[in-house]
Structure formats: structure tokens, C-alpha cells
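Subject: sequence -> C-alpha cells, single chain

Hey, anyone have a minute? Need the predicted structure for the following. Not urgent.
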Amino acid sequence: MNVQMKVEGLDTVRRIAAQSPRVLDSELRKSVRDSAVIVRSQAVANARRFSSTFPSSIRYRISGLEATVGSLAKSALSIEQGRRPGEIVKRGLIRRWIERRGLVRGIFNIESQRLQRRLGTRRRQDAEAEERRLAAVIVEQIRRSGTKPLAYLIPAAQAQKDNVTRYFKRAVDNTLRRVAR
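Reply:
Had a minute. Here:
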């Protein structure tokens, strides 16, 4: 899931600053970077309300005068928009999530965020069977009821819209000030 913001009137600003396109370009690049940073920061803060690990997957990428903010997680779109009842989730994804969390094996300490101990072979086989069973139950529940959206990215972009606008106005002002010298 990615959010892109478009600045309207950019061509007019470029024409005004034709004397010094490097100055304008430099100022706009700063604004793009600052905008990406602030939207990412807000998205991370939003995501921390529902997860301790997901926020670390939120990144931004800058290409020229365009910034893209999004998550590297495969589940990002499902998290942002939720799942409608009837949608199918791959059981393997849920099983790996259960395994990473240590939900069945009982060896994950939530306070320390570390594995407590290793399992013996027999216990491991029992745990794997229980993980598969629990994954099937969760997949069926998602298929029946769907999941609630946990929007983090769109609200971040909306919350930072005024700041982004301010950054670009500052870029234009700085360019005009520097060109007028």
C-alpha cells in the first residue's frame, strides 16, 4: 500500500524560477524528503497503536521529486483496509505468524520479547500440529467475519497534509528569495 501526494502548480513555479532551476530543484528535493519523513513518522506512530513490530516495516523511497511511503510487509494492504468476509487467507501465512509469536509453543516471553527455551523433537511435532490446527481455525474465522481495518497510512497522509503544503511553500519562498539576490 502506497500513498503519493501530487503538488499542483509545480509547472508555474518552475517557469517563475527558470533563471535558477538548480535552486528550485534543490529546495523542492528538501521538501519532498521532509514530507516523506513526516508522513512516515506519523504512519509509524499510527501503527504503534496496534503492533509493536509492524511499524518497523514502514519506509519511504524518494525518486526525483516523488516520494513513496509504504510498508514492506506483505500484509500491509490487509492491515490498512481490513478483509471482507469471504476473503481467503493462506493458511501458511497464519501458521508462520503463530510460529513467530510462539503462541502455541509457549516459549515466547512477551516481556523480554525473547524465546525462553528449545523444544524436544516430540514436543516440537505436537506444537507443529497444534499450530496447523490453530491456523485453520483463524483462517476460518477470517473467512467468516473478515478483519477490521487498522488504517495507519492514509490517516498519516491526511494528518500531515498541512505540513507538506507548508514545506512546499517554504521551498518556493526560499527559491524566490535566493533568485532575487
